[in-house]
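# step 3/5: fold
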Amino acid sequence: MLAAGLVVLMPFAALSQALAPGVKLVPVTKGYSVYNTASYNRHSLTTFQTNQYFAFYNSAENLVLARRALGTTNWQIHETRFQPNSPTDGHDIASIGVDGEGVVHVAWGMHAQPLNYARAATSESLEVTRRPMTGTEHSVTYPQFVNLPDGDLLFIYRSGSSGSGDTVLNRWHLSTHTWSRIQNKFIEGISSSVNAYPNFACFDSQTNLHFSWCWRDTPDFNSNHDILYAWSPDFGVTWKKWGGGDYTLPIRQGTAQIILPMRTRNMLMNQCGMTMDRNDLPIIAAWWAPAGGTENPVQIMVLWNDGKTWHTNPVTHRKSNSWPGRPIVVTDQANRVFVVYGETEQGGRPMLAWTDDPQRAKWNLLQLTSESLGRWEPVYDPQEWDREGKLHLFYQNITGNSGGTMVSVLEFDPAAYFRSLAAGGATQ
């Protein structure tokens, strides 16, 4: 019997085809299968105008940049000679950004090491040349490019190490074609021996930038604790607390606003998903053990605000403390919430949970494909979701072994899915 509040669409045993309704796979080429799709790689996929761009490592461990016209299956692929500093280190992710002039920027292959960064000389080109940023990026982990509404880019990274790191912000200025340092340590951690692990940074409809994170005290993930919040009205220059009040920068462990207190050793996972709903209210998707401790079942959870109060709800009703994939979360124009994750209890298959319940208590589950993807975690194209309401995911079987498996884009069209559901194409 299913737990209360959980509806399963297309039961796993009854799945008779590889792809769920509304799902299409667009293959690219073979990619490195030890890692590639960790969800803390926020921007492997991005769209500019009518073109979609992709950054990943191929089976030769070289950084690949790819481009296609949206709606087509033909990829232009450029294999660089850039490689991660340590090919077997899953932290050495590749992140891509495309600025408002259509110029590609890419950062790759670092774990507390000097910056690897390159950009193209002209719009839409995949030919990139290694360049400096501000010249002070000496210890970089988790590079992220974030598109600003005016066409500039933010570059977010950690300086330092796990359990002792500062969060740094740079900005690319289209007006001067230069980088500048916006915040040397907007969240401070090195001096107090913690570090912030941010969730997906996102904008509301008024172009305010929202940021949430957990603290880590040591390299052990079980030292993760608390969920914190900040937002900026000016793209990272000044920061405020949820519900009012200004931060004095840098934000420190003693000054950060806690929106969900949580002790260590509760299986809280770092670097998960966040979005804003259609009322400009935040939703964070992560996983932890709601009953506490390290032996109790781990659930995909949502933490959300109704305008007055923060609430938590389970998305899943899992039986084990095995690690699921880190989730991402998005909302559509109807204010439905979608959460995507890899489910180890179903053999590593990609799952989508959705709800139209205003209380986020009743969830529907959809297995996106029948393929087991191993250690896969979802990474999506935020521009394509915001513009077209279509969820494009980095799709690859992450075997943990050297060699290659096919890299694809999984395209999920909610409108097509709900049409199929209405016509009886999926069962409850």
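# step 4/5: annotate
The chain has a mean pLDDT of 93.
# step 5/5: archive (pending)
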